[in-house]
Amino acid sequence: MREDGEDMRILKNYLYNAVYQLFIIIVPFITIPYIARTIGPYGVGVNTFTNSIIQYFILLGTLGLTMYGNRQIAYTRNDKVKMTKTFWEIEGLLCLTVTISYLIFYVYLELNNDFKAYYLAQSLTIIAVIFDVSWFFMGVENFRVTVIRNAIIKIISISLIFLVVKNSGDLLKYILINSCAILLGNMTFWPYLRNYLVKISFKELNIFTHLKPALILFIPQIATNIYVVLNKTMLGALSSINAAGFFDNSDKIIKIILAVLTSLATVMMPRVANTFASGDKEKVNKYLKISFDFTMLMAVPLMFGLSAIAIRFAPWFLGNDFMVVGKVMELEAPVILVIATASVVGNQYLLPTNHNKQYTLSVTLGAVINLVLNVPLILYFGALGTAVATVISELCVTLAQLFFIRKLVKLRILFLDFWKYILSGLVMYLCVKLLNIFLSFNILTLLVEVASGIIIYVLMIFIMHPNILDFIDSFLNDNQLKFWRKK
C-alpha cells in the first residue's frame, strides 16, 4: 500500500510539473514569433549574447548549491530540525556566494561599455538567485507550489510583453520584464516555507560545512554551462550577433520540448535520493527502468516529429528573416533523445546515488569536446556548426554515463525495448516528412502533421507493444480499483 501511495505521489508531482512544462511550451509559441518580428534578429541576438554572459555570474553565484540543496533536503526531510538547519545553512552560503558574484559582475561592467544598460537589466536575475528556494520545495517533493506560483508570474509577464514591447527600441523593456518576473516569482516562494521549517538556534549554523560537497557538484555545472551558454557567447564573438540569435531560437524551441521530458528527472531526483538514503537499491533500479522506458516513449516521437517539420516550420513561425533556423533545428533535433537519456541516467541515477565523480567526468568530457569542435565549426558553418557540436558533445556525455553504470545496471534490460521506439518513430517521421514536403505550410497543415504523427506513432507502439504499456495498464487499473473502493 505504501508503495502504491509513493507511486501516486510521483505521478501527481510529474503531472504538476508536466502540465507546467506544457504551459511553458505554449507561452513561447506565442511570445517567440512576436519578439522575433518585433525586435528583429539583431535585438534577439543582443538579448541572447548579454544573457549568456549573465549566466556565468549566476553559475558562479549558485556554486552548485541549488542542485546540492535539492538532494540534501531530500536526505533530511524526515527530520524537521535537521532539515531546517540544512536549509538555513545552504541559503546563508547562497547569499554570500551570490553577493560575491554580483561584485565581480560590477567589475566586469566597469571594464566593458558595450550593451551596458542591457547587462544591468539582465543582472536582476543574479540577485533573484538569492530568493530562489524552489530547490527546497523540490527536495520535499512539493511541486504544486512552484508550478502555480511560476504560472501566475509567467502570465503577468506575457501580458506586459504584449502591452509594452512594440518595436526594436523596446528591447530594454523586454529584458526588464523578463528579469523582474524571475525576481518577483522567486520572492513568492518564501511565505510557504513556514509550513515546513521549525525554530532553531541560528548560532549553531555552520554554512561552510556545505561548501566542499557543493563545489563537487559545481564542477559538472561549469562543464554543462560551457556547452549550454558558451555556444551562444562564441557565436556572438566568432560569427555574428545574428548567428547567436539564430541558434538561440532553435535551442529555445528544442529546450522547450525537452522541458516536458526532463520534468520527470526533476520529480524523480529527490525520490531516488530519499530511497537511496533508506538503503533500498532494488527500488532505485526499478525507478530507473520505468523512467527510462517512459522517457524513451516520449523522446523518440518528439525528436523525429520536430526534425520532420523543422525546415518549413521555422520561417512560418519566426518570419523569413529566420529561415536558417529551420536547418539549425533539423540538425539539433537528435539532442532531444540524447539529453533525455542523460537526464535519466545522470540526474535520476548517478547524482542521487552519490556517483558525483562519474557524473562530473561525463559532463566535463562533453564540455571539452564541445569547446574543441565549436571553434572550427562556428568559423566555417556559423549557427549550423554549433548545432552539430552540441549534438556530438551531448552524445559523448550520454555514452560516458552509460559506460559508468554498466556494472551497476543491466544495460541490455534497460535498452530492451529501445528498438521498438526507434522503429515506431521512423515510420512516423517518413509519413510526416512527406506531408511537410507536399502540402503548403500553414496552421492547418501543422495541425494535420502533428495529429497524423501522434496517430501513427501510437498505432505503431500498440503494434510493437513495449513493456511500458503493461506497466501503465497495471498502474491505471490498480489505482482505478482503489478509487472505487474509496467510494
SSE layout and pairing:
Elements lengths: L1 H61 L2 H12 L3 H32 L4 H7 L1 H8 L2 H6 L3 H22 L6 H17 L23 H18 L1 H10 L1 H37 L3 H38 L5 H9 L2 H16 L5 H26 L1 H22 L6 H4 L3 H21 L4 H22 L3 H19 L1
Helix pairs in contact: 1-3, 1-7, 1-9, 1-10, 1-11, 2-3, 2-9, 2-11, 3-5, 4-8, 5-8, 7-8, 9-15, 10-11, 10-15, 11-12, 11-13, 11-14, 11-16, 12-13, 12-14, 12-18, 12-19, 13-16, 14-16, 15-16, 18-19
Structure description:
With 487 residues, the chain is mainly α. It has one domain. Helices cover 84% and strands 0% of the residues. The radius of gyration is 23 Å and the shape is globular. The C terminus is likely disordered.
Quick tags:
487 residues, mainly alpha
Briefly characterize the structure:
The protein has 487 residues and is mainly α. The chain has helices at 2-62, 65-76, 80-111, 116-122, 124-131, 134-139, 143-164, 171-187, 211-228, 230-239, 241-277, 281-318, 324-332, 335-350, 356-381, 383-404, 411-414, 418-438, 443-464, 468-486.
State the shape: globular
- Put simply, the count of helices is 20
User: SSE string, helix = H, strand = E?
Assistant: HHHHHHHHHHHHHHHHHHHH
Please tally the β strands and state the result. Answer: 0
Unreliable residue runs: 480-487
Overall pLDDT = 81
Radius of gyration: 23 Å
Strand content: under 5%
Distance between the termini: 17 Å
Describe the largest sheet.
none
What class do helices, strands and sheet pairing give? mainly alpha
Helix content: over 70%
Overall structural domain count? 1
